[in-house]
Amino acid sequence: MELIAPAGNLAALxxxxxxxxxxxxxxxxxxxxxxxxxxxxxxxxxIAQGVAFARQHGRQxxxxxxxxxxxxxAQEWRAAVDAACRLGADALILADPGVLAYARQRYPQxxxxxxxxxxxxxxxxxxxMREQFGIQxxxxxRVLTVTDIxxxxxxTTVEVEVFGxxxxxxxxxxxxxxxxxxxxxxxxxxxxxxxxxxxxxxxxDGQMEARLNGLLIDRYAPDEPxxxxxxxKGRFMVEGRRDHALEEPTSLNALSLLPRLAAxxxxxxxxxxxxxxxxxxxxxxxxLRAALDAAQAAPARYQPQPDWxxxxxxxxxxxxxxxxxxxxxxx
Amino acid sequence: MEMTAxxxxxxxxxxxxxxxxxxxxxxxxxxxxxVDVVYLGETVCLRRHVMRxxxxxDIAAELTAAGKQVVLSxxxxxxxxxxxxxxxxxxxxxDWLVEAGDLGAIRARGGxxxxxGPHLNAYHGDTLRWLASLGACRFVAPLxxxxxxxxxxxxxxxxxxxxxxxxxxxxxxxxxxRCFTARHFNxxxxxxxxxxxxxxxxxxxxxxxxxxxxxxxxxxxxSGAALDLxxxxxxxxxxxxxxxxxxxxxxxxxxxxAALAAARAGxxxxxxxxxxxxxxxxxxxxxxxxxxxxxx
Amino acid sequence: xxxxxxxxxVPPALLSPPLCxxxxxxxxxxxxxxxxxxxxxxxxxxxxDLGLRHGLCCRDGRFRPHGVADAELSLSASLADVLxxxxxxxxxxxxxxxxRLAIAGDTELGLxxxxxxxxxxxxxxxxxxxxRWSPM
Lengths: 331, 296, 136
Hints:
The structure holds 3 protein chains of 3 kinds. Chain B is α/β, with parallel strands linked by helices.
């Protein structure tokens, strides 16, 4: 299985390559990618350097252009596709059928991946995108069990990539408007979720309040671990009871499942976190590299090492880890 | 006098789990209403079972006899074998039109006509042309578009692909593998005791300051407030929107349909009260956060 | 007088120049170049373990002292964690999740600062030195 690492800047790209990623994914500095954060992402000059660096080390660079082209503005997304192809992308990670159509028609030889934002959760959906646009890989939404994934792989010739570590979306990606409902900006329309411009942290009565566009998302006691003020991970009131009504601040960690994922035919493991630092990228990539190598060398004897789990736990949001939908403890 | 533009009035699929007799009584009233198009079927959770397939078909026949166009909606988040099978079954029939809830349903339709549902992310002209090439005969616009974006989308839409916009009811905003209603009751998803049936408009999820926010409806998360663009019906039609969608709630649905019928006839339409305890929102339309309410 | 109360009696204006000097040295050493997005913006930094507060702003591409009270963004962390952040040895989000870094005020400006610190490539000597401070 390939290891796919996030990079929000050139330093992170280099850290990922040096730590053993097979491919790095990145985005341009605009709303064409789903991590459109202030001060993050690559200028074209950075990308040229990054692609050269990856090439020197025999690694690939994937371009995420995975938001939805907004009405009247498709030209911006087409320009991003043009830039990615010009800069030597090994693959484009796309979600929008209209953008996929453009990329396929304009660049018939370009390798295309269907982004997790493309919301293809079963073989019919994936096969439609293969027949229509020749996608060669799909990144699966984080809603499927290992059994679902195994069944799906049997029914498609498209390579399957799954998330192995990082902050967790509890909602099916590409179909969540919670952020624009609260702030106006969503992953689909602006490439952001719970955007920083709408976030305010305020100390009050010895607690810290997290507000999103004025809405109280959560209150934290002084030493309580905090999460991003991603609205699905806040604490709310349902029938008079305060709770993480949707999801606790957790990170996905599929370390213990690597041999099983390899056995069912998963082709690539993706790490979430283009918004995280090079320090995160270096440590998480190195850990998953060691785990993947161990899982490949002796799958039957494979066991996650305590120090791998320790490293990943340190970087996990809310300092918790879960196997998420893969095993569905809540099923 | 201001010119009025025509539009179809549609009723989206029932997103909640209501008792069988309630569903049947509801659609009897719908059959007698001014609605033109009715979407039927379970799109949220296939564990919900009080309405058997035959019951839905009876309602479809009743509505057709009353002169309504019936459209069968396929599930939105398809992950299990059951949802795949249901999608194939609905896509295979030609007695009624089909609303595609996901990409798989489009493939299963095999080029025969379908309505492209609201969660297919048709944000621009290239995507609309692609959908039309596969058989789309109408599309439901993404919920989060504002009025300028909607106008831009309509300007790019192929002329033979009419647009439908949701104008009333709690908005379906997100879908998960996880059931939030079961989670609230500390039940597992596969042993959920069908607690949804106790909440005809979903389960309110409010902020810790008691502010209205979201609604839990099984694996679906909805807006807390109900969308209300009834007063914009003529503005939407003037933009070129061909159909306006009401989404069923326990109360107010028939009045919302009646208000649209009045607007279509050029009459002043009375404001419609959502079910008790539910506020109103129209922020997306005005380019604000979706939960905002602007009085016009 | 304990270290923790030191900051409470020394006016912030007297404490800002040393921090600015450090950042200016880093800038002149070309490992922390302020981006255009920081021009004209102000930040207050509290070293929680020392009880010290610094205000600084970025003007004409250089770091200068600034009042603490009217800074647009307020960051709080221990001296050790601030040094690790400046040296690129620790992930700001990780510190934040663990409540070792607190942020108040303009969160988007905080993101600009964080992403700026993340994007800078540090010289090898600094990375080696900083690795020795790291508790990790």
